Amino acid sequence: MLRMDDSTKGMASNYNSNDDYQAAIAEAGAAQMRQLVADALMDPARLARSNQNSVVLCDYGCATGQNSIKVLGSIAQEVCTIEPDTQVTCIHNDLPTNDWTDFFTALQADGTYLTDSGGAIPMVSARSFFEPSVPTGTVTLGFSGSAAHWLSSQPTVKSPGCCYPPLVAGSAGDELRQMAAADWLRFVTARAADLAPGARMQVQCLATNIDEGGHPQPAGGRLLRGVWAVIDGMVSDGLVAQDAADLYVLAVYPRTTDDFLAPFVDGPVAESFEVLAHDIALVSSPYSVKYQSDKDASAYAKDYTGFVRGFSESSLREHLLHTDALVDEFFERFRVRNEADPTIDAYDDCYEMTLQLRRTA
Which residue segment(s) compose the domain that 222 sits in? Predict the structure, then answer.
């Protein structure tokens, strides 16, 4: 079992209101998954089963729900169009410490698959997605968006001058790479247990691009260098202890294509999945796009800081800053820094992997 001080205990309570980037990723993924679920419904392995009147959709890493509910609702509607008499169950998975109150508030909002009375049954799975999270062999279509780059637990390596695992050098960097590889294997092994034969799975998460010169370009490198710059400034001002800062990393690891594919080439799940498609793409930052249009540095810094706070606050609070005052100080410094120069920490290196899998019989 995982320690319950996992790398993030659940997204901050303002996640739903600061998730423009994640929403764009989810919207793009929903169109692809409508085709995936259509393929899964017609898969020979499913057609060979006696029980074909039930479809289970599962989102692994649903956070506070706004995007998860939209995506699964869209897929449920596609299933009902193809098979009107089929019962659809939508399972939203995240840690027990997730903000489930915000999730259920979002689920009951106007226009969701619950309030529209489309017939889909909502359920939650309050379990780490590094473990099997549903009854064995029941999922027809699995999805994980903007979640599988999180590590299973907070690393304890010492990394002076850097808080982003893919940028950490030396033996500490090697340890983090090994941890990321082990976590990815755990994730796909758990999905092999969850998915029914013939089921489909789509994973969208941060990735590391390899440029033409063979140099790695991890998603968010500029942004996380900016996060470290703010931490370093708070150390210089006596607000954060140097030893504590040297031990802090944000537990996110964008993997390379080879990293993603390794378990399916040679490993315990190599016979469990067929890789249907994989692609790393550069995704535009909605915050930078808006700034380029209106040149409003103040609005840009406010919105961008809200986005960063949404995914990083729980980690910073739990593992470095600890108090409301220090958390607020950190994000105010980040906002001021980005209002003064909207390019300094711009999220213009957002590489995203889209991986599609079929669960073999």
Answer: 16-359
Beta strands in the chain (DSSP E): 54-60, 87-94, 121-126, 139-145, 195-206, 208-210, 216-218, 273-283, 350-359
Note the pLDDT tens digit of each residue in 5-26. 344 444 445 544 545 666 666 6
How many domains is the chain built from? Answer: 1
Whichever domain contains 296, its CATH number is 3.40.50.150
pTM for the model stands at 0.92
Within-domain flag for 332 = yes
pLDDT 10s digits, 299-345: 999 999 999 999 999 999 999 999 999 999 999 999 999 999 999 99
Among residues 329, 310, 222, the alpha carbon closest in space to that of 14 is found at 310
Note whether residue 21 is domain-resident: yes
Q: Does residue 41 form part of some domain?
A: yes
- How many CB atoms neighbour CB 181 within 10 A? 15
Tokens encoding 8? 């993030």
> Which residues are CB-neighbours of 135 under 8 A, at least 6 positions away?
none
User: In terms of DSSP bridges, do strands 350-359 and 195-206 run parallel, antiparallel, or are they unpaired?
Assistant: antiparallel
